[in-house]
Design a protein that fits this description.
alpha/beta; eight-stranded parallel sheet; 16 helices; binds 1-deoxynojirimycin
């Protein structure tokens, strides 16, 4: 782990990650679905934005039952996205432009069409039978236990041919691999090597808290706090199906692979867990993920005191040397501009990009995209089809490039409908508007690059009132103030620890102004200022 000298920090500690949802980033071949050449064409947008790394959600061959999170070949590219040559072109060009490439590794489950599963289900004697989690029915013929699928219904499906159930934390089309089998571990670690050898700079690791299950498959206890309206899977506490002992040893084996490269590759883990459990994913002596994704900003109420408490709790819980990270949204969660509103989304951007650690921006956040309502006949997401109201299509609609046909995303009707406001809310229009959301993201990313204290300096709370969250970011040479008004009315901050100068306002209408021991924020305004040292 690099020490505290900013120059010795790794790229992923200094940098900002941008998530590309490949079906919806840019369509180069006119089939209505985004692809690898489209991502390559769009790289200049990301360079202009000022991010450092691009994480691309799954691009591997897949029947697309869960839009790529059901992989049928870990070593190829789905034809809808291109081929390995297109992938190599993308990596080469990204690297030329100074961008790192992070792929998505889906270790918990394969597609039911993966050759491993086809073999596994062929007979009970097949050498790959134990590569998946097979169990006998209970005496009454019901599934082996009460575990529920994340996407609704039981987590077990009966296979008539061999007379046993197989386990799937997600869809029946996504059977869980058995990571207690060493051959599975070896085969899956080879997948990492395959892509690292091809020049990939890191992986985001999918659903890591689901990797292994209780050996004796005990029933999960009923969740006393479950209420109507919550996801059906939450009827039970997933005490025996999630976050099991043994997971961390397996993550450490992934890390060993990442470490075996001269320039260590990055591993980010996806785990929706309370902070105390999440911290274990850094691993004993930091032998686990470099970054266990911290999703807590997504679920914390948009209130100054709640956010201050979250930051304090998270910072205090980090293991020694553990590097923080922050996320406002992704392809599975309501867009931040929908959750907090368009005006507060600007404040949220300033928060994300001024907290200590590595931020991840989800495609479209940089222009303030909101959730797009999807008419029933256009629904794609299997989660929505199984459990109406929980679908993720609204956050996966095409990126809005310009005001032209299909928002410049594709020459044809895209696979999901466009936001109605795309003629106003798009990259080209915002690039011309000096006060747009895009202009704000660019300014924030430029400031972050110029002021290493923002990514790396110490965090100290200045104040959290009902409306205002203010904190200092300080390193050996700079003392910066971040003050965010989470409400719509002007707020005065008093007794600041010294006079200073404003560097940036989310409204992009003031900078360079001096302030004394008091500072007035307009409604929905955030500012970054500097104190004399
Ligand atoms: C988490 C991914 O982000 C989500 O999109 C997917 O459906 C599940 N894991 C299953 O792979």
């Amino acid at each position: 782990m690099p020490n505290s000298d900013p120059d010795e920090r790794a790229w992923w500690q200094r940098g900002v990650i941008y998530q590309v949802y490949p079906r919806s980033f840019r369509d180069s071949n006119g089939d209505g679905v985004g692809d690898l050449d489209g991502i390559r064409e769009g790289l200049d947008h990301l360079v202009g934005l000022g991010v450092d790394a691009v994480w691309i959600s799954p691009i591997f061959p897949s029947p697309m039952a869960d839009f790529g999170y059901d992989v049928s070949d870990y070593r190829g590219i789905d034809a809808i996205f291109g081929d390995l040559a297109a992938f190599d072109r993308l990596v080469a060009e990204a690297h030329r432009k100074g961008l790192e490439i992070i792929l998505d590794y889906v270790p918990n489950h394969t597609s039911e069409q993966h050759p491993w599963f086809l073999e596994s289900r062929a007979s009970r004697q097949n050498p790959k039978r134990d590569w998946y989690v097979w169990r006998d029915a209970r005496p009454d013929g019901s599934p082996p236990n009460n575990w529920a699928s994340e996407f609704g219904g039981p987590a077990w499906s009966f296979d008539g041919r061999t007379g046993q159930y197989y386990y799937h934390a997600y869809l029946a089309a996504q059977p869980d691999l058995n990571w207690r089998n060493p051959d599975v571990v070896a085969a899956m670690l080879d997948v990492l090597r395959f892509w690292f050898d091809r020049g990939v700079d890191g992986f985001r690791v999918d659903a890591i808290h689901q990797l292994i299950e209780d050996e004796t498959l005990r029933d999960n206890p009923v969740n006393p706090d479950w209420r109507e309206g919550m996801a059906p899977v939450k009827r039970f506490l997933r005490s025996y199906s999630m976050d099991q002992p043994g997971t961390h040893r397996l993550i450490a084996s992934m890390r060993e692979v990442a470490k075996s490269y001269a320039r260590e590759r990055l591993l980010i883990g996806e785990a929706y867990l309370p902070i105390d459990r999440l911290m274990a994913y850094y691993g004993a002596d930091l032998s686990g993920f470099h970054l266990p994704f911290n999703f807590h900003l997504i679920s914390t109420p948009w209130k100054a005191k709640a956010i201050a408490a979250l930051v304090a709790q998270y910072e205090a819980a980090l293991p020694p040397g553990g590097w923080p990270n922050w996320v406002l949204g992704n392809h599975d969660r309501t867009r931040v501009a929908t959750r907090v509103g368009r005006e507060q989304a600007r404040v949220a951007a300033m928060l994300l990009l001024t907290l200590r650690g590595t931020p991840t921006i989800y495609q479209g956040e940089e222009i303030g995209m909101t959730d797009v309502p999807i008419p029933a006949h256009l629904v794609q997401d299997p989660f929505e089809k199984n459990v109406p109201g929980f679908g993720r299509d609204p956050v996966r609609t095409p990126l809005q490039w310009d005001a032209g046909p299909h928002a410049g995303f594709s020459p044809v009707e895209p696979w999901l409908p466009l936001a109605q406001d795309f003629r106003l809310c798009n990259i080209a229009a915002q690039a011309k508007d000096p006060r747009s959301m895009l202009a704000l993201y660019r300014a924030l990313l430029a400031l972050r690059r110029k002021e290493p204290a923002l990514a790396q300096g110490a965090y100290a709370l200045v104040t959290a009132t009902d409306e205002v969250l203010a904190y200092e970011r300080r390193d050996g040479s700079r003392r910066l103030l971040v003050a965010l008004n989470l409400g719509g009315t002007p707020q005065e901050l008093r007794a600041l620890p010294g006079p200073g100068t404003l560097l940036l306002s989310t409204h992009l209408d003031r900078g360079g102004d001096a302030f004394g021991e008091a500072l007035t924020l307009a409604g929905n305004e955030g500012v970054v200022g500097e104190f004399g040292y």
